[in-house]
Design brief:
The chain is α/β, with parallel strands linked by helices and 469 residues long. Helix content is 40%, strand content 13%.
Length: 469
């Protein structure tokens, strides 16, 4: 492709992108295609000869958008948001155009040093103490894996990477029964085993917090059984219902027991730019490791997960590997972020945070999050006032769950699953379900970057209309 052709198609892509963002509400939120519909439109074999960009772009327009679930649609209330604020999207285009591999300081000094600064901007924005440093991982799953590996190595005196785990007394990691499945997967990948993730019961209070006394008893019982307690994963804003542990109490127990602590605040952590929500992670200054995802609620496009560490030296000692071809000579005081994570190859993630926080300012980002929290509470109250709905778990930030209770039949799981499917087939909004205390409940979470109050009204109307049909 010649430079003038590249310019033309970049302009075409920009025009398409802007039009897409303007008109995304015209699409059903969740894709309506059936399995195999897209596959059958793609030629089964690669072309031997070049095809024109006109043909390629035309196929893109025809085939791809109908097969996408539209995460930037204002009616997206499922899972957690995966926002892509327009100013940050511009930064992503620039980073992709530069095409740098940012594994070492010398491979892109600006990328490394901007990352240092952007992580510190996030630290300041969320009120974390100055003794936290950090790195931008791809996702919270990777950050959690790094934390679990660090728990393993600190417990074993940094011999696990060299000697393996054969013949060792099993290492135990503790988390509440309401934590995310990424904790389980990290145990698999770290070689610690699913059965050594000890799920601690939670209180049936408003936050569904881990039972601190049960945690202490589990640690002591494991030690008496000859097992090796290694760390605790603390939940702040769990995916299912927003479950939030008492960070201060759990950190205190972990410190007494000599255990490493990792706080999973992947979604809720972004809300901590608003000081009034920081009570949800009171005591966070005592944690060893924290993850929050700016690519969820803050507006940075995927992938952008901020991993804060109290003592980076233990993380680097766990994960750094330095063959000759990755060494940098003659430069002192540099950071090589590939030594802070599992990945060697790294994208230029910091650029989108720089654009994002400058273009909207913390005040603009705070206003969005406050609106989402307020509007979600208003919708919960409206549904709860209806005779045929019940709010099952009250809002934690902008997440709550509810059930439909038709007056002429039992409020079965089947009825509520049918309602979720009807809503998603309708296409106006998108919701997902979860399980809470043995019952299927419907989740609602507000988080679209440019959400307006009218869309919350639309969600209420859609939920009620389809339920009563």
């Amino acid at each position: 492709m010649k430079s003038e052709d590249f310019e033309h198609w970049m302009q075409k892509a920009a025009q398409w992108s802007a039009e897409y963002r303007r008109t995304v509400e015209q699409y059903p939120v969740r894709s309506q295609v059936a399995p195999g519909d897209i596959l059958n439109q793609i030629h089964p074999s690669p072309p031997d000869t070049p095809e024109s960009m006109d043909t390629i772009f035309s196929d893109f327009e025809t085939i791809i958008p109908p097969g996408m679930t539209h995460w930037q649609h204002p009616g997206f209330f499922a899972y957690f948001p995966s926002n892509a604020a327009p100013a940050a999207v511009v930064a992503e285009v620039l980073a992709t155009s530069i095409g740098a591999q940012c594994m070492l300081w010398q491979t892109s000094p600006a990328a490394t040093e901007l990352e240092v600064r952007m992580v510190d901007w996030l630290r300041q924005a969320t009120g974390l103490p100055s003794d936290f440093q950090g790195v931008l991982q791809d996702t919270a799953s990777s950050a959690t894996l790094c934390a679990i590996l660090t728990m393993r190595e600190t417990t074993l005196g940094f011999t696990g990477n060299t000697d393996g785990l054969f013949g060792m007394a099993p290492l135990r990691v503790y988390a509440s029964s309401r934590t995310h499945s990424s904790i389980d997967k990290a145990m698999w990948v770290a070689g610690l085993g699913q059965n050594n993730l000890v799920k601690i019961p939670t209180h049936n209070d408003g936050n569904f917090a881990m039972d601190a006394d049960a945690l202490r008893k589990a640690i002591h019982a494991d030690r008496e059984a000859g097992l090796q307690p290694a760390g605790v994963v603390i939940c702040v804003g769990g995916t299912s219902i927003g479950a939030t542990d008492d960070v201060a109490a759990i950190c205190r127990i972990a410190k007494e027991e000599g255990l490493y602590t990792h706080v999973d605040a992947a979604w809720a952590g972004s809300a901590m730019i608003c000081p009034e929500y920081r009570h949800l992670w009171a005591g966070i200054e005592d944690a060893d490791s924290i993850v929050l995802n700016p690519h969820k609620w803050l507006g940075a496009p995927m992938e952008c997960s901020a991993h804060f560490i109290k003592d980076p030296s233990v993380l680097v000692k766990t994960l750094a590997i330095q063959p000759e071809y990755l060494k940098t000579y003659g430069k002192d005081g540099i950071i090589n972020f590939s030594e802070w994570g599992v990945q060697l190859g790294r994208r230029f993630r910091a650029l989108k945070l720089w654009f994002l926080m400058r273009a909207y300012g913390l005040d603009g980002l705070r206003e969005r999050i406050r609106n989402h929290v307020d509007w979600s509470a208003q919708l919960a109250n409206r549904l709860d006032a209806e005779p045929d709905f019940e709010v099952v778990t009250s809002p934690i930030l902008s997440l709550f769950t509810f059930r439909y209770i038709p007056t002429d039949e039992s409020a079965s799981d089947d009825v509520n699953l049918a309602l979720v499917n009807a809503i998603n087939d309708d296409g106006t909004i998108y919701l997902t379900q979860t399980s809470h205390d043995g019952r299927l409940v419907i989740r609602f979470t507000a988080g679209h970057f440019d959400l307006e109050a009218r869309t919350i009204d639309q969600a209420f109307e859609t939920i009620c209309r389809l339920a009563r049909q």
